[in-house]
Amino acid sequence: MFNQRIPFQGKTPRRSGTALWLALCAALAAGGVTTPAQAASNDNNVEWNGLFHDQGPLYDNHVEPTASQAVTLTLRTFKGDITSATIKYYDSGTSSFHTVAMSWSSNDPTGTFDYWKGTIPASASEKYYRFQIHDGTSTAWLNAAGTTSSEPSSGDFFIIPGFTTPGWMKNGVMYQIFPDRFYNGSTANDVTNGQYTYSGCATEKHAWGSSVYANVSGCNTAVFFGGDLAGVDQKLGYIKNTLGANIIYLNPIFLSPSNHKYDTEDYMTVDPAFGSNSTLQTLAGDIHSTGNGPKGYLVLDGVFNHTGDTHKWFDRYNWWTGITGAYESQSSPTYGYYTFQNWPNTYSAFFGFSSMPKLDYGASGSAVRNAIYGSSTSVVQTYLKSPYSIDGWRLDAAQYLDASGGNGSDATNHQIMAELRTAVKSVNPNADILGEFWGNSGPWTTDGKQWDGAMNYDGFTQPVSEWITGKDYSGNAASIPASQFDSWLHGTRANYPTDVQQAMSNFLSSHDISRFGGRAGGDIWKTYLALFFQMTYVGTPTIYYGDEYGMQGGADPDNRRTFDWTVGSITNSAVALTQKLIAIRNAYPALRTGSFMTLLTDDTNKLYSYGRFDATNRIAVALNNDSVTHTITVPVWQLSVANGSQLTELVSGTVYTVQNGQVSVAVNGHYGAILAQ
Asked: Does pTM top 0.90 for this prediction?
């Protein structure tokens, strides 16, 4: 396929020879022009280091165009470097390639770069584009995956008319809560020792802060601490004001016998250990309120691939009265909701766990599809509407939804996801659909018909962990240098349309992997560095409760420890830094929807620098992943920042003056700097 997405492998930018760099050195010595642009000319050599395009606001006038909006694209080159440029795009409506000649438009404010423009005509069809750039006999190609000397066959930029992702998700900061472990707001609903037995395990009530492991081997899911929705409500001031996060994502809250609630017993009932449906209404209203901080948004976890075996549709243990479940009788009205190979004991289940029988979605219009999302009384639509009015669904194990007990990730799965999107957007066009997938989520996010974004394990969590902690997100040894980190980020951004990139959930830890603080060996400075990156990178920063202070923890269930409220305030240095960094992100749209440009990678000294910019601000971020202080010389000329300009480091308040096209800033080990013009 011409637009098959592949990881960016990285390529050293072509530069002209020794003469150019001698000229550059002479210019630096003389205090004059500080970039290779002074040597750029029509010399049959395209200077790759001057090429730039992304779909930030300075380079794409309609990132989310309607079918009637033409899209004008801007390409940056070194001044006087090229002789012509062309946009080549594939139109899915005509199943053919087209070209648009670009014309010189203007120079950047410093006179270092030229801007070339071209316009792709309006239509309703999805398109993919790349640039062909000429300097005489020399040709370079540029697309989302990078620059090449021969025409690429993958990695193009996207244009998807009519597709938008929610602005509140792109511009927000999300806080993920595992409800039982966050805060106990009402002891009246606490699960008690031996309150009930499920799958051979009696419930255990543990004291807050004690071990997450059960006293009985194999019964960890029966351990409860008392966290609940009232507790979340009571701590909204911490989330919304102390931290500044405005999106709450709750792990499952519906009736279930386990502490994790991924084995749903009843989608329409909030688990009594967490409160009631009325408690959820109150919490949603308080999250949405501006009386306790910024307006907030609520995302619930939708576990729709499977139910629990105690669900009334299945009813393995005859817990329900007045209804006959599929496990009880082949004549059950819900027998067709599941796939039995040999009724009743052999059936399709999530990863083979018999406690989680898979739902059989059947054909379009089936009873299961209507019950989950298709009808006005479905699970998905009910909670999107008043009195709950939640703002989005996180779709658990979303790739596996299928018919006849299949494994998903096929045409039926994509049909289900498209139908679900239609249902969600029919109730609230501004609601978010966040899918769980651990690899390249392109199949669900590049057609404009399924998810708005995904859990960004592949494009954030894994590379950040490997670069900063030297371990993958499972805790295995895996270290990468800054240059590979940058290439990884570049390649995974290229997998998605820009508005999807901006709505991806970027988290350091989750309920499914080891804690970042544990992988960092308890070094809080590594958490500091990770927070700098998380709050300045492309996507929605997502804090798994406790990561803001470096909570420790290994694999499940150790990654679900109780929140330590003795450090849940700005007297804790990491929490204070989180507050500061979120405030900076909230203050600068360039950090949310601006362009991203790599400025520097230094593998020897473990340094990384990049720019985020829009028409209002140009921001350079400098990160030091070494254990000692380094002075990082940031080439801000690449951001068109003029000599003599002043940049303010937003955490410390220190002001720097640009000289010779660059700024030098001393950055502590495992720390960062954010320089804004």
From this structure: yes
At residue 35, the pLDDT reads 55
Q: How far apart are CA 441 and CA 622, in angstroms?
A: 29
Which one of the listed residues 47, 233, 396, 649 is annotated catalytic?
396
Structure tokens, 97: 């390639």
Superfamily of domain 590-676: Golgi alpha-mannosidase II (2.60.40.1180)
The one-character DSSP state at 60 is B
Q: Which residues of 95-107 are buried (b: 16+ CB within 10 A; e: fewer)?
A: eeeeebebeeeee
Q: Which has the closest alpha carbon to 494: 53, 137, 61?
A: 53
18-159 to CATH, choices 3.40.50.1820, 3.90.1150.10, 2.60.40.10, 1.20.120.1460: 2.60.40.10
pLDDT of residue 409: 83
**How far is Cα 430 from Cα 47, in angstroms, rounded to an integer?**
42
C-alpha–C-alpha distance, residues 526 and 469, integer Å: 7
So what's the pLDDT on residue 36?
53
Residue 190 has phi, psi (to 5 degrees) of -65, 140
Please write the tens of the pLDDT for every residue from 243-282: 999 999 999 999 999 999 999 999 999 999 999 999 999 9
* Dist CA 528 CA 525 (whole Å): 5
Q: CA 178 to CA 509: how far, in whole Å?
A: 12
- Classify 335 in phi/psi space as left (phi over 0), alpha (psi -120 to 50) or beta: alpha
| DSSP conformational letter for 531 | H
Q: Indicate if 396 belongs to the active site.
A: yes
| All residues at 6 or more sequence positions from 377 whose CB lies less than 8 Å from its CB, including other chains | none
Give the pairing of strands 432-435 and 84-91.
unpaired
Q: Is 436 a catalytic residue?
A: yes
Query: Which residue, chain included where needed, has tokens 């330590």?
Result: 564
**At 621, which amino acid appears?**
V
Q: Which residues contact 121 (CB under 8 A, 6 or more apart)?
A: 70
Q: Dig out the tokens for 471 from the structure.
A: 């371990």
For the chain, give every domain's residue range. Answer: 18-159, 171-307+351-587, 308-350, 590-676
Order of strands across the sheet that contains 432-435: 453-454, 432-435, 392-395, 297-302, 247-250, 174-177, 540-544, 505-507
Task: Report residue 254 as tokens.
Answer: 């519906």
pLDDT at residue 29, as a whole number? 35
pLDDT < 50 positions in the chain:
1-34
- Distance separating alpha carbons of residues 566 and 272, to the nearest angstrom: 27
- CA-CA distance, 86 to 79, in Å (whole number)? 17
Selection from 85, 56, 168 nearest residue 498 by Cα: 56
Is CATH 3.20.20.80 correct for 171-307+351-587? yes
Q: 18-159 and 590-676: same fold?
A: yes
Estimate to the nearest angstrom the gap between the alpha carbon of 375 and the chain centroid: 30
pLDDT of residue 407: 87
Q: Are 87 and 118 in contact (CB under 8 A)?
A: yes
* Residue closest to 460 by CA, chosen among 430, 432, 492, 482: 492
Please identify which of the residues 180, 309, 419, 436 carries the catalytic annotation.
436
Q: CA–CA separation, 421 vs 274, rounded Å?
A: 28
Cα(528)–Cα(534) distance, rounded to whole angstroms?
10
Compute the chain's Rg from CA coordinates.
26
Question: Which residues have a Cβ under 8 Å from the Cβ of 144 and sit 6 or more positions away?
Answer: 54, 155, 156, 157, 158, 493, 494
Is the distance from CB of 455 to CB of 507 less than 8 angstroms?
yes
